[in-house]
Design goal:
317 residues; alpha/beta; 3-stranded mixed beta sheet; 10 helices; 28% helix; 21% strand; globular
């Protein structure tokens, strides 16, 4: 099988209409904090942060598509689309089973259809894994899995949102190998999504290895990542709590690598860590304090990468 690109210039975001904390996700998402302001003020600040982020990405040369959230039904986490969908170079689109019932309405086939009809991407097949919800099996997209697309390995920290049965289903369909393990925060609670403790770029990987208590598993994960030739940058559990693992490498339309992370994540890194990551691409730190604190997710969660093939006549913009 042809080796896939690890990064893409094409991403989409969903501009939230009803951003707020979500009681249905709070139990498993220990990164989420209760809002300190009234709901309307939180929504307004989240929109300002969102709009600022889109400006930074477009200014850097990323091919960004923005879709508006729908008002009904109410979707407090609509700003995090990477949990419900992933797009692949073979033209397949995967829809995922989500743990929280109020998040399931985030799955929007109209967005997938628009990528094809309005943006020139080719969708060969939609693979809907959401029926697994009926069996209590969950796999929340590229939150639950960090994909080494170039080597076809799905890294996954198992949790209430990431079940082995659903992971195996995806891996069999998409022809991926599985690297599964357990990861814990400073209080011994499972890390809710793999993409807060691991990020894989073209030439680097950022990982909170110390969150993997099982030393044998920890060594195996580090060895597997190192075998790809990537620069391994380890972060601490405290840095993970500041979203230092929740970053994403993209390409500009000119082909230059950029690495998107929050200002909170950037500030938590040491100079040496920043230098090692920046050697692989220009860092784009973006302030999204309200979205991080109230929503419990950061910049990587807000970006859905589009690896679908495009029609020859489509201009890559």
């Amino acid at each position: 099988m042809e080796k896939q690109q690890q990064t893409t210039p094409h991403v989409f975001m969903v501009r939230p209409h009803n951003f707020s904390s979500n009681p249905q996700t709070a139990a498993s998402n220990t990164f989420q904090r209760a809002p300190e302001a009234e709901a309307a003020a939180v929504r307004s600040q989240a929109l300002r942060e969102f709009d600022s982020m889109t400006g930074v990405l477009r200014g850097a040369g990323v091919a960004l598509m923005v879709f508006e959230d729908t008002d009904v039904p109410h979707k407090p986490d609509a700003v995090f689309p990477n949990n419900w969908v992933s797009f692949h170079a073979d033209g397949r689109v995967y829809l995922y089973p989500l743990e929280a019932e109020d998040r399931r309405a985030e799955r929007r086939v109209d967005i997938v259809e628009s990528l094809s009809a309005d943006w020139g991407f080719h969708v060969h097949e939609i693979v809907d894994l959401s029926p697994l919800e009926a069996d209590g099996l969950f796999l929340e997209g590229t939150g639950s899995m960090v994909l080494d697309r170039a080597n076809r390995v799905a890294y996954a920290a198992l949790s209430s949102r990431t079940h082995m049965g659903a992971l195996a289903d995806f891996a069999q369909r998409a022809d991926y190998e599985i690297a599964a393990f357990e990861s814990f925060d400073a209080h011994g609670r499972p890390v809710y999504h793999t993409n807060v403790m691991l990020a894989i770029g073209e030439r680097f990987a950022v990982i909170c290895a110390e969150s993997i208590d099982d030393l044998t598993k920890r060594a195996a994960v580090l060895e597997r990542l190192a075998a790809t030739g990537r620069e391994i940058v380890e972060i601490s559990i405290a840095q993970m709590a500041s979203f230092a693992g929740n970053l994403l490498e993209l390409r500009t339309t000119a082909g230059d690598p950029v690495i998107v992370l929050s200002r909170t994540a950037y500030d938590s890194l040491s100079d040496e860590q920043r230098e090692r990551i920046a050697a692989c691409g220009r860092l784009l730190p973006i302030p999204i304090d309200t979205i991080e604190r109230v929503g419990g997710g950061s910049v990587r969660c807000m970006l859905a990468e589009v690896f679908l093939p495009r029609t020859p006549a489509t201009v890559a913009t």
